[in-house]
Amino acid sequence: MRLSSICAAIAVMAIAATPAKADPPRVVATIAPLHSLVASVMAGVGEPYLLLPGPLSPHDFALAPSDVRRIAGADLVVWIGAPLESFLVKPLDGAAERQLALLDVPALDALPFGASGQDGDGAGLDPHIWLDPVRAIAIVTAVQERLSQIDPDNAATYRANAAALIVRLARLDEAIRARLQPVASEPFIAFHDAYGYFSRRYGLQPAGYFASDPQRRPGARTIARLAALVRDGTVSCAFAEPQF
Q1: Do 44 and 165 have their domain in common?
Q2: Phi, psi of 28 (to 5 degrees)
Q3: Any long-range contacts for 183-189 (C-beta under 8 Å, 24+ apart)?
Q4: What share of the chain is helix, strand, coil (3-state, %, to 5)?
Q5: Which residues are bridge partners to 49 per DSSP?
Q6: One domain for residues 128 and 225
Q7: Is 45 exposed, middle or buried (0-12, 13-18, 19+ CB in 10 A)?
């Protein structure tokens, strides 16, 4: 047998003996803040799919047929929960092993609307957990643990990525606290009741919201009450929400 034939045979045997590299898990994250966290944990392994890109809001989003197919084929769907992404309740019904509903994670300590001290008229749990960097750390931990379960071959990478991201989030928490401390006692208003976790973390003073649900138009009485707070100097800060 020629030397070239022997080398070719050895090469074929070597390729056949090498285990095929597994495809990365197919992961869907619903909103941009979650996608950013999940993508950081998955760095070097794969890229999660962002379900709501750009200016799309989960408050009025409807799944397209292509979205339904992608969700059905996902190994993991990371979402906040029914209070924010109600459009996922039916597609994920009976698929507990393929989803991570963050409001159900005990470490995130989800709170009801109004827990920051401002009486809100929204019912149920406040879904805006990503606005608190400390809770974002809990999100990262939950994502890392679930990814390691479904993809143990890359568990070490997920753990290393999560550890690095947690350090960055802890530094962000410190930076935000230092930046806001001088103005923490200043009341503020916002378009909708989304800042409970953020306010509670940094001791901020929400004076009111135009709406608990951004899909509901604020009433004349609410607008008049908040306008009066601005006119009399009680409030000098308003959080803009241009997406609404």
Answers
A1: yes
A2: -115, 130
A3: 183/237, 186/236, 186/237, 187/229, 187/234, 187/235, 187/237, 188/235, 188/237, 188/238, 188/239, 189/226, 189/229, 189/230, 189/235, 189/237, 189/238, 189/239
A4: 50, 10, 40
A5: 28
A6: no
A7: middle
Per-residue pLDDT of the chain (244 residues), as tens digits, is 443 443 344 343 344 443 445 789 999 999 999 999 999 999 999 999 999 997 788 888 999 999 999 999 999 999 999 999 999 999 999 999 999 999 999 999 999 986 654 444 445 899 999 999 999 999 999 999 999 999 999 999 999 999 999 999 999 999 999 999 999 999 988 888 889 999 999 999 988 888 766 666 777 787 788 888 888 888 888 877 766 6
159 shares a domain with 86: yes
CATH number of residue 170's parent domain: 3.40.50.1980
The residues near 201 (Cβ < 8 Å, ≥ 6 apart) are 132, 133, 134, 173
| Domain membership of residue 207 as a residue range | 183-239
Query: 81 with 98, same domain?
Result: yes
